[in-house]
């Protein structure tokens, strides 16, 4: 869940009183996002009041968190401490993660032209850390946002699983996407073919949504926490994580295209990933998330995905 920065509680917010009755007198709303509202409780805990249910189910989400926590990473990851339900609403108590967001919600931020070295170093630390965590069965059973089945179901290779996802996702609202992307079907087929040509790789943990708000840093700029797993979390090729991160670090700023190209180059060089693989995965991300928030160019994410596809070298080869 991306914290959108709306910490002001609505007038009828009943949850601070609810938490106060349970011994958390200082509970305060600290953010909200797609999954629900987060409250700071003090004593190293936060509570998440869910707007629905985790797509994969809470038990699976909790297992993925535990799989990550077993590894000595240079940053903290979420941990669910307790679960309860109040009047049909799911509430989870979680470990409070230190630091401050590396940036504001990407839809409202404007980055300068120069990529901060501090941010590049932080991204490399996070990517290397996650790539050191072997993918687990629980991660493979997660469902990507917007899809209707676990990504890995029926597949032995990550690239084949993604190719099948591309087919399902583009079929959901093909007409809407085709209205803005020339030769959509040919581009989809080129992307699927490029995916299948990629070599076997280690299967590692993938966060899938490393936008600036989801990486917390300390005063020196070092990453101390990574949060909000779930949007595109799975097990797979760590190059996919790098490709998506390069694309989404700055989505809507005035130099977004330049930043994406530069980060793609830096991550390919520093992490040893083939540039063609990163470009392929960036096309996949656009083809599988384009319809999650809107279906025309009045929606920022839809418009961003269209622009990604129009300039992607693999999609347009």
UniProtKB/TrEMBL annotation:
The segment(s) forming the Aminoglycoside phosphotransferase domain are: 27-251
UniProt-listed InterPro entries: Aminoglycoside_PTrfase, Kinase-like_dom_sf
The domain of life for this entry's organism is: Bacteria
Q: What is this protein called?
A: Phosphotransferase family protein
Organism the protein comes from: Kitasatospora misakiensis
